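Anyone have tokens for Sugar phosphate isomerase/epimerase? Sequence:
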Amino acid sequence: MSDGTASTPRPSKRAPLTVPNQARSRSRLHREYLAKYPVYDHSEIHISENPIRIGLSTSSVYPMTVTECFSTAERLGYDGVEIMVTNHEETQDAAFMKDLVQSTGLPVLSLHAPTLLLMPGVLHKDHWEKLRITCRLAAEVGAGAVVVHPPFRWQGEYARNFVSGVRRVSEETGVTLAVENMYPWRAGVREVHVYSPHWNPIGQDYDAVTFDFSHASTAGTNALEAVAELFPKLRHVHLTDGAGSLKDEHLVPGRGTMPVAETLQYLAKQNWHGDVVVEVNTRFVAKRSTREEMLAESLGFARRHLGLATHPHS
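Reply: yep, here.
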């Protein structure tokens, strides 16, 4: 099923497939700049005039279940959850999710559409219909946003008409589709740009975006500058960290080298209105207690730097 945007004019020229690899040099320059010109204001506590909720992503407790994500979020004092839709039935079952919302009192803040490389057939084989189904599911469970990755260059009409198509699906369903920043893949000394129209949402005509700190680290992006530029469209944040590795690390915030604290404080200062969702990698942690310590640390970090440390749950 097509979204009807096939007649949209195609760009006159596609972005180059590869460019020189500059991520590490960019990351180093950003770190050196912040070390020389610190921007964090330690003398004041800043809090947004608009509500900022802090959620827990099901990917942060993988391979635990959606039920366990809700119970962990409730126990630690999170404000809600984000559910990554996968081939597991419970991530696609609205009635099941609403029962968990009812039993824990925690809302579903957002869904993550199954647009990852290894999920080509989840929900539907047609990419546009996949997004429509995810948005309808989000509306049914009360989630205000759906996070979506940009398509791969080889995904035909979906890739060519992604920007206009996302807008159309969002208008059809009434659900915000927030396109996430990604990163170039690496091939020796070259960066391979596999995403269309680009891995970087800056300069793209999206209505809403998601910012992920780990993806920014892998790309060598200056997170503080990027968030400031994306601010008018920024609806959602994936809270994590990175140490400048070529891998997508998803570290506990504060354990990497990204200006995560500075960026959260910037959002609070600017009276941002959106959701911050913790998306850290705990899948190789052997002990449940260690995983919970990581998730509690992430929540405390978010509250502290968003000025929410006096929250009743803290």
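Confidence is low (pLDDT under 50) at residues 1-12.
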